Amino acid sequence: MLGPQGAAAARRRIHRQHMHRKRKEGNGMTVSRVEYAGRQAGVDTADDTPDLHCPACLEQGKPLRMVVEGRYRLVRCRECRTEYFRADPALAGCDGQAPVSEYWEQYKFGLYASDEVRRGYEQRYEATLDEAERLTGRIGTVLDVGCGIGNFVSFAQTRCDRAYGVDVDAGAVNMARSRGLRVALSDDLDALLPDASMDALTLWDVIEHLYDPFPVLNGALRKLRPGGTVIFETPDASFPVRPVVLAVNAMSRGRVDLTGHMYYWEHKIYFTEAGMRAILNRLECEVISVERPTSPRAKMQEIFTRYADASWQSRALAHAWPRLEGAARRVGRGNKLIVIAQYTGRG
After folding, report:
1. To 5 degrees, how large is the angle CA 242–CA 264–CA 94?
2. Rounded to an integer, what distance in angstroms lies between the CA atom of residue 217 and that of residue 163?
3. How many Cα atoms within 13 Å fall on the side-chain side of residue 218?
4. Which pTM does this prediction carry?
5. 164 with 202: CB under 8 angstroms?
6. Tens of pLDDT along 242-287?
7. How distant, in Å, are the alpha carbons of 173, 228, 305, 345 from that of 224?
8. Are 344 and 245 in contact (CB under 8 A)?
C-alpha cells in the first residue's frame, strides 16, 4: 500500500510520463477553438479530485477559495507559485459544460485599433526588440503567435525583413489580412512557413489564454531556427496587488470583490518568473532577460472606463489604478512579465 506521499509521487511520475509521450507524439501547432477554450479531452477528472498539476513545472498545486464561472477553481503551484484555473468536479454539477472562452469580443477590435493604444504597445515592442537584438543578435524574420488584428506584425514589418502571424480567431485574421499583413489561421501554419525558418517567435499576452500551453509552444518552436529568440508578455502572478485583492475578497466573504479585474476565465494561467523558467526549460529554451512593466496606460484606461459602471468596486479600482500602476512601475514590479529566451533545441 502506498502512503499519501507515495501516492502523490506516483501520480506525479505518471503525469510526467504522459507529458513526455505527448511531446514525442505530436508537435503540431494547431490550436482548435476547443483547446483554446480550455475544453480539451481530459480536462474534467473521472472522480471528485481535480487535476492540480501545474502546467508550468508539473508539480502539485493547492486549491484556493477563488472560483470563476461557477466551476473553475484557482490553484496555486506549491513549487513555482504559478496560479491557474482547474475544473472542480464538486462545483461542476450545474450543467456539466465548460463555458466557451472567446477573447475577441467585439469591443476589443476597436480597443486594439485605437491609435493611442497602438502607440503604447509600439513603444513596448520597440524597447523589447531592441533588448532582444542586443542579447541574441539581429531579428530578420519573426512569427507572432496569437497575432490578433496584426498590430505587432504591422510594427515588425517596419524593422524586420519579414513578419508573419497566426491566430485562432477568423475575424481577427481577416482584419489583419485587410491591412495587407501575412497572417493565417493557426491550422494553416505549416502552409504559411517551413520549419526552422524564423529568427524570432513572439507571444504577446497569449500564453495565459491556453489551458495547457506546452503542446502549442512546442509546435510553434518548430518554426524557429536553433539559437532563435523567443519573446513572451504575460500577466505576472507575483504582482503585489493580486494577493491583496484575494485577501480582501476572502476576509469580506465576497462582499468586497475586486478580483474580477485580476482573475477571470479568459486567463487560464498566471505565471510567475519561476513558472516561466520552468516551462521554457522543458521546451529547451534558456531565459536571458526578465522585466516587469505595467500594462500600457491607454489600454487600461479604456478598459476601466468600459466597466466603471458595473459596480462600486469597479469604480474604486479604476480610481485607484493610476496610483497603483505608478507605484508598481517605480519599484519595477508591474503587472506584466516580459521574458526573452533563446531556443537551444533541435540543433
Report:
1. 130
2. 18
3. 18
4. 0.79
5. no
6. 888 888 888 888 787 778 778 988 899 999 999 999 999 999 999 9
7. 22, 6, 39, 10
8. no
